[in-house]
Amino acid sequence: MGLSSIAAGLEVTAEQRDRGVATADGTDASLAGRLEPFADELPCDAAAAAAVVEAYAEGADLGRAAAVADVATTTAAKTLYLLGEPVDPLSPTARRVVDDWLAGEIPRTEAETLAGVGASEFALGAYVATHDPIPEAESVVADALAVEPDADPLYDARSDLNDLV
Asked: Is 141 part of a structural domain of the chain?
């Protein structure tokens, strides 16, 4: 029995109407627009945060990214940290010193001396110790900065997790 004998007697009585694909994709929004829901949690507005992230992603150092966004360097570092970049100026020993200071075991001046960093680095380290990154904002930034495999000329040269198995 072939397909022609199975399909014998079948006929189309109605035509299907092509309705297309329904989309509700918000990725056409700018990075600043996508960061807007997190503006209250960020140390600067969404537009400045987007400018910091984009400049940093293009290879600018922290100071240059802050200048592009017209914010203080510490504000840019806090923003990058909250958006998932591992920005921490402290060594593991200095982090323990900051933890001791936060617990009230030592005064700030002694903690700064023991940590061996300046006041702004110490303040940023304390901020990192007392704040957590924003997971939803991290995924927004990761999606916005993801390189499409077709756009990445070295895509084929990199190994994949499946290559290890």
From this structure: yes
Asked if 82 and 48 count as a contact pair (C-beta separation under 8 A), the reply is: no
Largest CA distance in the chain: 92
Structural domain boundaries, residue 125 = 30-145
Tens of pLDDT along 2-36? 777 877 877 777 766 665 554 444 456 788 888 99
Separation in Å, CA 136 to CA 57, 58, 85, 140 = 18, 22, 13, 6
* Whether the predicted model's global pTM rises above the 0.85 cut: no
With respect to residue 162, please indicate whether it lies within any of the assigned structural domains: no
Question: Considering the domain boundaries, does residue 121 fall inside one?
Answer: yes
C-alpha dihedral (86, 97, 126, 64), degrees to nearest 10: -50
pLDDT digits (tens, 9 = 90+) for 65-102: 999 999 999 999 999 999 988 888 899 999 999 999 99
87 vs 114: CA distance, rounded Å? 20
* 125 in a structural domain: yes
165 class by beta-carbon count within 10 Å (0-12 exposed, 13-18 middle, 19+ buried):
exposed
Helices 46-57, 73-82: crossing angle, 10 deg rounding: 90
Predicted local confidence at residue 17, as pLDDT: 60
How many domains would you assign to the chain?
1
Give the distance, in angstroms, between the CA of residue 51 and the centroid of all CA atoms in the same chain.
13
